[in-house]
From TrEMBL:
Biased segments, Low complexity type: 64-74
Region (Disordered): 42-76
Organism: Brachybacterium sacelli
Transmembrane spans: 15-37
Name recorded for this polypeptide: Uncharacterized protein
Keywords: Membrane, Transmembrane, Transmembrane helix
Length: 230
């Protein structure tokens, strides 16, 4: 093969063109091989051609209730056990997909609280420990989490009889009594559009006051969840 005469300007231009073409072929080949290794790149239709966004994990969108949501209510009663059961049922009845927030459910229980107001602040604090906080509530709402309680038993604990015997005169209003509730907390929701459920045994004590102090029963305080009087 004859070596080209690089002193000739026409020969130099021809060689430069050939080299440029070869470089272009190599670049295109490299891009093709890279594409085969990495696969088809993910394209963001809204991208402006900048760097690729990092992957984002998304939760399901907030569910839309199919019926008009309603807050639970505590049915009034002058019977201590019936009222204790009514309180327990309402306390555990909530639905994050309803559009209501924990404070809305708290207000339901407070409406049947101590009429004198002496125990209202303490009762509000007690109720807060039974409900998810605001941040957890917002997260649970993504999965349409709802809860209810199935009561297995309700009884006056032996420890309450002892407390009454040891109480000072006038320390307890007439008709004050404690009921321990034992039951199963049921939760249901959606995970990847599939229904999921869980069950958990719970026990707690409600402190109420009924007649002769009042015509109907009222809630005074709640024990710590799963730490009831026995």
């Amino acid at each position: 093969m004859k070596t080209p005469d690089l002193t000739n300007s026409r020969s130099r231009h021809r060689l430069i063109a050939v080299l440029a073409a070869a470089v272009a072929v190599l670049v295109l080949t490299g891009i093709g091989v890279y594409g085969l290794i990495t696969g088809t790149p993910t394209h963001d239709p809204g991208s402006d051609g900048g760097t690729e966004p990092e992957p984002v994990v998304t939760a399901p969108s907030d569910p839309v209730p199919t019926t008009t949501p309603r807050l639970p209510t505590v049915a009034a009663s002058d019977d201590p056990e019936t009222f204790a059961r009514n309180v327990a049922t309402a306390l555990f009845a909530w639905d994050t997909a309803s559009g209501f927030m924990p404070l809305d459910y708290t207000s339901v229980i407070l409406t049947v609280g101590d009429p004198s107001g002496a125990e209202q602040a303490g009762l509000a604090s007690d109720i807060a420990t039974y409900l998810p906080n605001r941040e957890a509530w917002v997260e649970l709402r993504h999965y349409a989490t709802a809860q209810h309680l199935a009561i297995d038993d309700a009884y006056v604990p032996d420890a309450w009889d002892t407390a009454v015997e040891q109480a000072q005169p006038g320390q307890l209003a007439p008709g004050t009594v404690a009921y321990t509730i034992e039951g199963t907390r049921h939760r249901e929701g959606l995970w990847n559009d599939e229904p999921v459920r869980s069950e958990h045994a719970v026990a707690f004590t409600v402190f109420i006051v009924c007649g002769p102090s009042y015509d109907t029963c009222h809630l005074l305080r709640l024990s710590e969840l799963d730490n009831p009087l026995r």
